[in-house]
Structures are given as C-alpha cells and as structure tokens.
Amino acid sequence: MSRSRLDEYRERVLKGSVIASLLRLGAPPMVAQLASVSYSVLNSLWLTLYSEVAIAVPRQVFPVTSAFTALVNMLTTAGTSLVSQYVGARMYSSVKAEASRLLTAALLFGSASAAAFYTLRPLIFGGLIASPPEILDEVMRYTAVSAANMVLSSVSSMLSVIVTSVGETRLTSAINIAAVAVNAALDPIFILGLGPVPRMGAMGSALTDTIGLAISSTSLFLLIRRRIPEVTPVPTLGFTARWLATVAKIGGPVSLTMLTNSLAFMAQVRMVNEFGVNVAAAYSIGFIVLDIVDAAMWGLSGSIAIIVGQCLGAGELKRAKEAAIKGSLFIASLVALGALAIYPVRENVVRVFTSNPVVVEHSLGFLDTILLGLPFFALFIAGNSAARGAGRTLVPTAIGLARLWLVRIGLSYVLAFTLGWGPAGIWLGIMLSNVVGGALVLAWLALADWAKPIIRNANAA
Question: Is residue 315 part of a domain?
Fold first, then answer.
C-alpha cells in the first residue's frame, strides 16, 4: 500500500461526523460480532444436544483463560494506542517497528501463558473454581485444547490490532466472519460425532476454535503483506527498557483490570457453582442471551479507540473527546433498544436451550435483573475503549476494580449468602456493578482532562 492509501484511511477517520466515522469503522466489526454471536448460539445448541449440562462448560473456562492472557491484553492495548496515534501523526515509519515488537512479544507472552494454564488447570477447576462434578471431565478435556488456542489467539489478536488501528476494519471483519463460518460448519461434526469423527462434546468445540484461529492468523498476516506491506511485522528482539515501560504504562492498567476481572469472574463462578449444576447452566444461558443483546456494543466499541487515537495523534483534541462521549452514548442507546426488544421474548429464547423448569426459572431471574443495567455496561465498555485509544487507562482501571470487587463480588456475596437471597443476590450484584461502572466512566470522560496524546513520549524513548 502506498503512503497515499495510508493518508486515505487517516482522512476517513479524522473528517466528517463522529457518528458517521464510528459507523464506518464499527459496522464491519459489528457484523462480524453478530456472526460470532450466532455461532456461539449454535455452539450452545450443539452442546445441549450432546448433554444439557455441557452448555455450562465454556462459561466455567472463560474467566480463567482471560486471566492467563492478561499480559497479551496489555500488548494489544498499547498497540491500539501507539499504532493509531502514529498513523494520526503520519509517522508511518514508526508503525512497522511497533508492529514487529508487539507481534513478537505477543507470541512470547502467549506461549508462556498457555504453558502455565495447561499445567495448573487441574488445580484451578478441581479446587479453586470447583466445577460441578457432572461437567468436570468435560472441562478438563476442553481446557487441554484451549491451551493451544491461547497461543493462536495471541497472534490473531495482535495482527487484528495492527490492521484495524490503521483504519482497515472491513477486511479484518471479513476474515473473522470466514473463520466463524468454518467453526459453525465443523461444530456439529466435532461435538456430536459424524462419519469418521468421534463424538467429542465440548472438546470438539475447542478444536473447531483451533481451526478458526489458524485461518484468521494466516489470513491477517497475508492481508498486511498485500495491503500495507510497509508495516509488515518481522521477528525482532529489539525491546528496550523504555519501550517496555511505555507499554506497561499504557497497557498495564488494562492488563491489571483484565486479571482482576478474571479473578472476580472466577469468584463469581465459584459462588454460582455453590448452588449446583442447574444454576450454573442458567448462568451460562443468561450470558448467551446477553451476548445477543450487546453484540452491537462489542462490534462498535473498538472503533472509538481508533478514532480517539488518531484524533489525538493529529492534534484534534476536541474531536477526540467528542468521539468518546458521543460514541459511548450512542452505543449505550443501541444496547438499551436491544434489551427492550429481547425482554418480551426472553422466556422463549431460554427454552430453546433447556426444558428443565428449574433452569428456566433461574435463567429468567437472571435476565429480569441484569437486562436493567445492560446499557450502563455498554457505557463502561465504550468508555474503556476511548481510554485505550488515548493511552490513559489508569482511572478506568480503578473504576473497574471498584465495581468488580466492592459491588459485583462483595455485595453479591452478602446478598446471596449472608442475607440468604441465593442466586438472586448474585444477579442483583452483577446488575448494580454495571450501573456503577458505567456511570463513573461516563463522568470521567465528560469531566476529566484525559484527551492528550502520548506518542511524543513514546517517540522520544
């Protein structure tokens, strides 16, 4: 790609309506996210055909894998800030060096994390989380494959950050959709066993993820080589102490948030597991429905980081703040509409996944409570995306820690166990944590002086 093509991407981000830029950048990832959610729903259906309680397996594992990938998340966060701001400042020669360092570090950190996860998983799921005995064997087989997926996911995520931070979101979304399509086609074969493929249950689901991640990683690298060859990353050990300090300063707070989020979710899963496999299944079904409602949020929120980063790099500080606030409110409004749409049909959706009346009852209690606070969760996620684009992640990290440990875990425990409200107490704690987090992050975006570029310091280093 020529320098003029990079300038073209940059101009699309920096000019015109903020919401138009948000939709232009965010619509392709949103479509990809909708495809991913559709796959997740189908995946859950195949798991219920294999075993009705197997639907709980991925939700048991997700918080733990998130904890072990926290360091990689630090790199992707720093990559979003640095690459997008360098592009905004037209410092294109710095993009290749950053991409090379970031991808190499992601591969190293991802491999180390995967090895640690594989080694420690019997202690985690057998003791720390105490997965229900009905699904423990499924969890162990699923996590054996998930360890390898962590390495592939590290590479795929970093390559995606490099491409999207330039401003190219359509082709990355097309690649993600293609990978999801392959997963969806293979899922029933690997989970239920068709032809020569044995019946593998949850482990089969993880194996299809392996294939999808391999496809996306390879395709993203080829995309960079063909469309933006001048920023193609190469292996390097050119890490300096100052570069590592810059990455830690930008991504460290987010990495800490992710780690503490994961620990909080582990504690939350442990509390849910105390009420048995039926409540664990209801918890998983509830989150499947929430994923349907907030699919637009996950697809659009990443574009806020790109716009904010490039605006700050170009010195457009006012536009950066406008993008953060307007974008967050716009996404929250979409999520609110989604919650209103799903509410009247929530029971019908739940019954697609289970015929057990106990699971249905707990799933509806979950949704009736948590749907109320979901728009505030959208504010929290969108606001954190703006912070990543700016490279100012410390305050949102503090807000995230408070909402998780004081409200989601502390209050949930008091309500569920001390006051004896049971699972309903956990659901209420989750909802209130979203309200508190979203309101505080929006206030920070509106009132704090965060809209300042960080690449001058990084470039001097």
Answer: yes
Q: How many helices (H) and strands (E) does the chain have?
A: 19, 0
In a domain, 459, yes or no: no
Q: How many CA atoms lie within 13 A of 151 on its CB side?
A: 14
Both tokens assigned to 276: 């048995």
State which residues form the domain around 107.
3-454
Would you say 222 and 172 are in contact if contact means Cβ atoms under 8 Å apart?
Answer: no
- pTM for this one? 0.71
| Other C-beta atoms lying within 10 Å of the C-beta of residue 216 | 25
Residue for token pair 């659009």: 300
Flag whether 163 is in a domain: yes
Residue 275 CB partners (closer than 8 Å, separation 6+): 422, 423
| Mean pLDDT, range 420-431, rounded to an integer | 96
Share of the chain above pLDDT 90, in %: 43
The alpha carbon of residue 398 and the mean position of all alpha carbons in its chain are separated, in whole angstroms, by 19
Q: How confident is the model at residue 326 (pLDDT cuts 50, 70, 90)?
A: very high
CB 206 within 8 A of CB 142: yes
Query: pLDDT (tens digit, 9 = 90+) per residue, 52-66?
Result: 788 888 888 888 888
- Centroid of chain to Cα 47: 22
Q: Are 60 and 286 in contact (CB under 8 A)?
A: no
CA–CA gap between residue 317 and residue 412 (Å, rounded): 40
* Residue 259 structure tokens: 């780690």
Pairwise CA distance, residues 293 & 413, whole Å? 27
Residues 357-392 have pLDDT tens digits of: 999 999 999 999 999 999 999 999 999 999 888 888
Residue 461 falls inside a structural domain: no
